[in-house]
Amino acid sequence: MHSSSKQPGATFKNRGKALNHDESDKDEDFYSEIAPRITCMPIQKRQPYKRCEEYCGDEYGQWRMEQMKGAERLEKELKGRWSMEDLIDEQVKRFQAQYSSIPTKLIKDVAEVLMPKWAPPRELAALSWLGDWRPSAIPRLLHSLIHAGTLPESRAVKTVLPLLMEELRAEEAVIEEEMAEIQANCIFHLPLGMMRKKKGGVAALACVHTEFKKVHQVLIKAQNLRVKAMHVSVKKVVSPPTDAAQFLVAFARLQDLIHQHAMRHHLIHGPVSVLTA
Q1: Tens-digit pLDDT profile for residues 111-134
Q2: CA atoms within 13 A on the CB side of 177
Q3: What range defines the domain where residue 220 resides?
Q4: Cα separations (Å) of 274 from 122, 224, 259?
Q5: How far is the C-alpha of 166 from the C-alpha of 136, rounded, in Å?
Q6: Number of neighbours of residue 19 by Cβ within 10 angstroms
Q7: Is residue 8 part of a domain?
Q8: pLDDT tens-digit profile of 198-218?
Q9: Residue 80 DSSP class
């Protein structure tokens, strides 16, 4: 009886062990099936960042991308504007250096300013005023570009430009009166008056130098007036940098066009001649 009663318990224990063994085999088979699907990633290795859309959603990711593109365009425009302003300042400084460069007070240097050798006679006849462009012609060119629709008309164009042109014409008239007085003095008084009163070549030459010093002062005023006309036209009349750049380009091209046309005519027809009866 005792032996028969122990057998069922032993059988139960053995069956339990067999059951546990079978379950472990099944677990091992299950894990063995999915094991190849699992890969281990070392901690030291970094995976590339995923796109923002995968974390934040497509709509936010697209908005973020458009925002960054817009910021890049704005940054490029800002850099372009800064570089354009630098180029405008550099071009204006070139004109200022050209108009401010007055040679020494020697007679031959003053004559060189009035009649520059690099300018053909027809170029001087077309636009020369005391050796270079008339100051009021600079804002007049700006007015022509605005009237033609090349440049927009702004509030400064309506207010500052007319005042500038009127002021330049008034100062030009004063300079012309001073120059006319010097010319009249040279024509009427030097050969007939001063040279009669003062005997000797040294005294007569001193009188000539005195008049040329006056001409030199007039030329300085004319050059300063050109500097003023260019500076005010670019800095105070034309406000956007793009419009100022267009005006400077048009001014330089017009200067070159007139010069090339006069040079071509000079090479074909020779120097200017006057027919006499």
Answers
A1: 788 888 878 888 888 778 998 889
A2: 6
A3: 119-272
A4: 13, 34, 22
A5: 8
A6: 10
A7: no
A8: 555 567 777 888 888 899 899
A9: H
- Identify whether the C-beta of residue 114 lies closer than 8 Å to the C-beta of residue 130: yes
Torsion on CA atoms 177, 182, 184, 189, rounded to nearest 10: 150
CA distances from 30 to 21, 22, 125 (A): 14, 12, 104
Report yes or no on 260 lying in a domain: yes
Work out how many domains the chain is built from and give that number: 1
Across the chain, the runs of DSSP E, i.e. the strands, are 128-129, 132-133
CA atoms within 13 A on the CB side of 76: 6
277 forms beta bridges with none
**Residue partners of 252: CB distance under 8 A and separation at least 6:** 91
Q: What parts of the chain have a pLDDT lower than 70? A: 1-61, 63-64, 74, 78, 81, 103-105, 191-202, 272-277
Q: Which residues of 34-68 are buried (b: 16+ CB within 10 A; e: fewer)?
A: eeeeeeeeeeeeeeeeeebeeeeeeeeeeeeeeee
**Which neighbouring-strand residues pair with 165?**
none
Inside any domain, residue 137: yes
Residue in the structure block whose two tokens are 């009035």: 114
132 - beta bridge partners? 129
For residue 243, count other CB atoms closer than 10 A to its CB.
Answer: 20
